[in-house]
Design a protein that fits this description.
- The chain is of the alpha/beta class and 336 residues long.
- It has 13 helices and 11 strands.
- A 7-stranded mixed beta sheet has the order 5-2-1-6-7-11-10, sandwiched between helices.
- It is globular and about 60 Å long.
Amino acid sequence: MVTPYRIALLAFPGIRAFDVSVITEVWGTDRTDRGAPAFDLRRVATDTTTPVPMRGGMALLPDRTLTWLSRADLIVVPGLDDHLTPAPTPVLDALRRAHARGTTIAALCGGAFTLAQAGLLDGRRAITHWNLIDLLRAHHPQVTVVPDALFIEDHNIWTAAGTAAGIDLCLHLVRRSHGAEAAATIARSMVTAPFRTGTQAQFIEHPTPRTDRDADTLAAVREHALRHLHEPLTVADLAAHAGMSARSFARHFTAETGTTPLRWLLDQRIAAAQKLLERTDLPMPEVARRAGFGSEVTMRQHFASRLATSPRAYRAAFSTTPASVSETAGSSPIAR
């Protein structure tokens, strides 16, 4: 019998109810009937007899003490209602011990302040909500605060930007440990995107544009690209489809999505290849062709740089019941 992946939701007074809900929705809902893996989510606090108060009259009842962290595969720290809330000393000590053991630790939104209190972000890169970046820098100058990511990792410590980026990080951690299909299954259940590309720059307050014509045009271009990933698309091709110059298209695209057209296209190709590797037994050259990489060598290079693995190792780790080539035949890379 396979031991379920063990996740610890670290709880102490002041944590945000929204982040607790996100963590619980991703890992605390049984979706094994839909092919998702089994998870063992525990609510961990200094003791199990006292409910942890949260804003709005809500409370969280812990079911494990801090000693359970030694068994966890992943520890997730929710954000805070007051971002300067001091975490209890036993919590900070437990986080330090867990990191020393090599346990993966993730913080959502203002949870980065908790990790910084523990000293785990000293000399490391981290992210938080764009509106809290200056506060994190001011109170923890030893942290290298990255201003425009949705989430980042440094030495097995993950941090995420505000609110919805916590969902992005949680789904990414599922994808990292259990594959793209498992993350997609959970995302579909939550009615959210399996992954978003770009940075939080796209969400920082800006003057409202006069028209949404460009946004509608770019959405149509992205849809066109997803339907033709198997073709050798270029930024010039996408710009022509949008009826813009390449320079104007790149500027509008980056402003809307927080990433460049080329990087977005590469993200989509990698996602398509992941699904093909998980769902089919197609040979590697055919996977590369359908995902739009052109060659197995190119696909392998991008997997190495973006996923730190090879396509063959990814298939070995995450392949589900193979589908025949005939079942996945067609011009589109894979049903999305």
